[in-house]
């Protein structure tokens, strides 16, 4: 079973968490002002929402059916879904603070720290515990359905998220993830979407970041 898309999304999320942590600890600035003016925060949220929604809508239900008689593994799925909910609530709290001119900068810093730590831990947990279950318990048909739904959710913001996902990817990974696209979309990726992404100063540092 080819888990390229899962590893690619996790790698891209980890890359962005590093940038998020760096830009929100800039001396003489506060996290709220930084995030309010960056495209990177928007892209991180869009990608994470698409990825987690596909897991919640398709992947976890399929695994739950396959693991119906394995209570320990079913409990793991409950924990992973709960981690999604916690991460979502932290993002909502950050956005609420961004919309509040009186928000405490220290509170914003604490929220960003909670997101960075919580999401990184969740990615580690999925890779250590859920990836083996996916490999061992899902059928090829179930995995293909998840992959299609995941691709559809990413495609809602394809112009932004495909270059975001594939930034720094090797040729094999890029080919695997672009192969299902129509020829017109692949041409758009190469000629328009990727150049625009590479020129984007997405974390407000005055220069593009890989």
Short structural description:
The protein has helices spanning 4-23, 31-36, 39-66, 71-98, 105-137, 140-155, 158-166, 171-178, 183-198. With 210 residues, the protein is mainly α. Helix 1 (4-23) packs antiparallel against helix 3, helix 3 (39-66) runs antiparallel to helix 6 and helix 7 crosses helix 9 (183-198).
The radius of gyration is: 18 Å
What's the oligomerization state? single chain
What's the number of helices? 9
Q: Major sheet: size, sense and barrel closure?
A: none
- Determine the fraction of residues in helical runs and give it as a percent range: over 70%
Structural class: mainly alpha
CATH class group: Mainly Alpha
The chain-level mean pLDDT equals: 92
Distance between the termini: 29 Å
CATH superfamily: nmb1532 protein domain like
Q: How do the helices and strands follow one another from N- to C-terminus?
A: HHHHHHHHH
Low-pLDDT stretches are none
CATH architecture assignment name: Up-down Bundle
- Strand percentage, roughly? under 5%
Shape: flat
